[in-house]
Amino acid sequence: AELDQVANNQQKFLGFGEDDLGYSPKPGQVTVATMHKAKGLEWDRVYLLGVNNYDFPSNESHDTYRGETWYIRDGLNLEAEAVAQVEAIQKQRGYLIGVATEQARSAYVEERLRLLYVGITRATRELIMTWNIGRRDDNPSQPAAPFLALYTFAEASHTSDAD
């Protein structure tokens, strides 16, 4: 019964004060936050900076992502492959090299796409997204695939509104 009251905002958990309820944006003030910390909050205008393929990779082979170079060797995610090998031994089943790497990459891409969704949906009136080329001269970053898809959608919507 008490949980129902809490769920319906009729009662608060004991021991939780106003400070424990989280951040409340203040009108007229700029808030700088990560997308992780912005979950559940909204603002009239949101700026998402650096929406490139390095921070928000697709599952395309040409995209590299943050941290990938630290645990990838010969195109394999060594951590994921080691875990898959141990699981194969434990479950007495076959192990196919590279499958765990692809699964780990897909899971990372999915997580980053969910995070981008959180960032995009924080804006109630205006969303400004930018991308940068990064610091690598040998393989500069490009706009993230979701960024390009949203841009194409917005341009098409704008063009059809003008017609």
Describe the protein's architecture and organization.
The structure is a single chain. The chain is α+β, with helices and mostly antiparallel strands and 163 residues long. It has helices spanning 2-7, 35-38, 68-71, 78-90, 99-120, 145-162; strands at 43-48, 72-73, 76-77, 123-129. The strands form 2 sheets. Strands 1-4 form a two-stranded parallel sheet. A two-stranded antiparallel sheet has the order 2-3. A hairpin with a 2-residue loop joins strand 2 (72-73) and strand 3 (76-77). Helix 4 packs across helix 5 (99-120). The longest helix has 22 residues, at 99-120. The chain starts with a helix and ends with a helix.
**Percent range for β-strand residues:** 5-15%
- Could you report the average pLDDT, rounded to the nearest whole number? 81
Q: Which structural class is indicated by helix and strand composition?
A: alpha+beta
Portion of residues within helices: 40-55%
For the sheet with most strands, the description reads:
2 strands, parallel
Give the C-alpha Rg: 21 Å
Number of strands: 4
What spatial form do the alpha-carbon principal axes imply? extended
How large is the count of helical segments? 6
Spell out the helices and strands N to C.
Answer: HHEHEEHHEH
**Order of strands, widest sheet:** 1-4
What are the segments in which pLDDT stays under 50 over at least 5 consecutive residues?
A: none
Q: How far apart, in Å, are the first and last alpha carbons?
A: 56 Å
